[in-house]
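Mods, move this if it's the wrong board.
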Amino acid sequence: MKEAYKNRIELLQGTLDLLVLETLQWGAQHGYGISVAIRNHSGEMLQVDTGSLYPALQRLERQKWIFSEWKVSENKQRAKYYRLTAAGKRQLARERSRWEQLKLAMAGVLNRGEI
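Not the wrong board. Structure tokens:
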């Protein structure tokens, strides 16, 4: 087992949506690319399994926050590429705001003894 994965963090419900939307803000990506981006940008602390990622992508698409289309990938394979919609960009802003509120709330509890 790779050392970095020993301390993997389990994602809170709803956090995956934020991570996917944020990743797609950087440009259209296929599912595997999304999972690699999340892993790489988290210092290999977060790993999204396909059993969680693809249902999340389907849910986000039903919400019209992302759009998908089939394209040929870099390695000449057909792949479904996802991109953020205008509604998805608005949702990303809402999710980021909620995340900031959660961070402040957590800090208030965790730092209580330091006052």
